[in-house]
Amino acid sequence: MKTASAGTVESMDCLVTVSEGAPGSGLSIQLSGAATARFAPTMRKAVQEVATAMGASDLSISIQDNGALDLILKARTEAALARYRGGDTA
Amino acid sequence: MIRNALGRELPESIPGYGVVKPFLGHDKRVPEGNRDGGRIKATFGNQTDKVLPDIKAAIAASGLKSGMTVSFHHHLRNGDYVVNMVIDACAEMGIRDLTLFPTALFGVHKKLIPHIKSGVIRRIMGSVNGPIGQLVSEGGMEEPVVLRSHGGRPRAVTCGDVHIDVAFLAAPRADRYGNLSGVGSKSACGSLGYAFTDAMYADCVVAVTDCLQPYPIGNVSISQLYVDFVVAVESIGDPAGIVSGTTQITRDPLRLLISRYAAQLIEASPYFKNGISFQTGAGGIPLAVTAFMKEAMKRREVKGSFGLGGITGYFVDLLKEGYVERLLDVQSFDLEAVRSIASNPDHVEISADWYANPWNKGCAVNMLDVVILGATELDKDFNANVNTEADGALLHGIGGHQDTAAGAKLTIISQPLLRGRIPCVVDSVYSVTTPGEVVDAVVTEYGVTINPRRQDLIDAAKEAGNFPLLSMEELLAKAKDLVGPMEPVQTEERIVGVIEWRDGTVIDVVRQLKAKA
């Protein structure tokens, strides 16, 4: 299965892993980490925004979070999606 | 439902706890009547040896029965073997429904979990952390945990709120007639401060030692007057877990910046003069604050009077170098502190009662000028939470937080604005440990935020003019801007933790976490 990832599990960072979803499955986002207890909707929204802007679909995005702020969450998501598409330059 | 002075909603009575006395204000409740006490006992000249062969013999001799209250002290910290050893023996002897009344529990005590699940331990009055804290937070105990500060605990014992049936005292050194010492042996822990009240007020006192010496030993902390039985075991604890290595000052530039701001606030305050007293504990930031303060004391030729609380090698150096005249030590954190308390008469062992009990004739925190503390979160009213984490789990004890904040003339909470994505300032703390009326300032990497009720401090800080000042509203706005909106913690109605203020009133309760879907 094709996957790509970006980020680390250092404090205040996150590891974003993108993998192939079933055709027509849309976008599925899995969040883990301590901050999800209080920030899950905000985190989901940040990831969704980037994915939508990049036209991503039929993908599974898994976030292993260690306290990343939205800015970092978005940047890591963007990088993982770009890598998934084969261009490692984004 | 009733509301306490902070507006927290509390039931009138809590199953397993009893009638709730609502928090009234930090110095509003005063006692009436006489002190409580343990049983009177006669010991004549034909009884000259208190040694029993093992823990089970001591448990049998103590009269410990199902449903009773057993107490322990935490000077062996994460190296302790005694709590697990005693509860294992109780379980084997068929004793159940115990109330465990430790001064604190550590990670090593996760071995108690099977005894909680099987009903040997019915209730814990004391701090819970790690796996036991998680178990309690998820509703794994029948009765709520009762949290008390280092001063609130001896208050509860001396006034009779809690009666100790049997106190088991880990003793690094003892003689056959029950004189106990915390120094001069392989398991040395220094001060035995937290154990004093238990020794004096329990019906029966069992000392457990791994260094039994001929009568009488020297450096006696707790004397033979209080001890019923002595048991010698192979080992009372792991020395590596009892004392830490030398505590390091933080090297993180962010934390150093915070420490410098805190030290500058102290220097700007009216308390920075000859005779200043302080407590800074063992954390990375507080130690760095002490180092910056030391520089300032040297520069301005200021001599301090005493250092208080948990004592580290860093404080021992301050004593040796003449920056303070005395150390008042309720808990010796590292080897340097243990060595110092054993040999330096100006390094004084004090009990938890002496340290922090609001209901005696004057405790040490009342004489304190400055304390540096932490908190998991603070709110716009400066209320501090040290007990629960951001996810609502009850994972930390109160320690001396309430006592030192209430006693000190300048109470500073210093820490980074964010831990991961979790901000340390919020609109309203999830649970209150210490009310804003006794918190004077919060110091973060953005600068110093002073409680508006301390206009004198705000004026002094402005006059000094060498560190940034920002209001709580500004700090809160910064935090919200960085982290985004926070969802509330999802809980059940059931109360799993009762947080007492140091005077025995209830400042807040902690509810069971909703099971994750």
Q: What does this molecule look like?
A:
The complex is a heterodimer of chains A (90) and B (517). Chain A is α+β, with helices and mostly antiparallel strands and 90 residues long. In chain A, 37% of the residues lie in helices and 28% in strands. In chain A, helix 1 (36-53) links the parallel strand 3 and strand 4 (59-65). The longest helix of chain A has 18 residues, at 36-53. Chain B folds into two domains: 49-125 and 162-242, Glutaconate Coenzyme A-transferase (3-Layer(aba) Sandwich), CATH 3.40.1080.10; 253-489, Glutaconate Coenzyme A-transferase (3-Layer(aba) Sandwich), CATH 3.40.1080.10. The radius of gyration of chain B is 23 Å and the shape is globular. In chain B, the strands form eight sheets. An eight-stranded mixed beta sheet of chain B has the order 19-18-17-16-20-23-27-28, sandwiched between helices. In chain B, strands 5-15-13-10-6-7-8 form a seven-stranded parallel beta sheet. In chain B, strand 17 (304-311), helix 10 and strand 18 (326-332) form a beta-alpha-beta unit. Chain B is an alpha/beta fold. Chain B contains 15 helices and 30 strands. At the A-B interface, helix 1 of A face strand 24 of B.
Neighbour order of strands in the largest sheet of chain B: 19-18-17-16-20-23-27-28
Oligomer: heterodimer
Number of separate strands of chain A: 4
How many angstroms separate the termini of chain B?
Answer: 29 Å
Work out the number of β strands of chain B.
Answer: 30
Q: So how many helices of chain B? A: 15
Can you tell me the CATH architecture of chain A?
Answer: 2-Layer Sandwich
- Which pair of chains forms the biggest interface, and how many residues does each contribute? A-B, 16 and 15 residues
Query: Architecture of the largest domain in chain B, CATH level 2?
Result: 3-Layer(aba) Sandwich
Number of domains of chain B: 2
* Mean pLDDT across all amino acids of chain B: 96
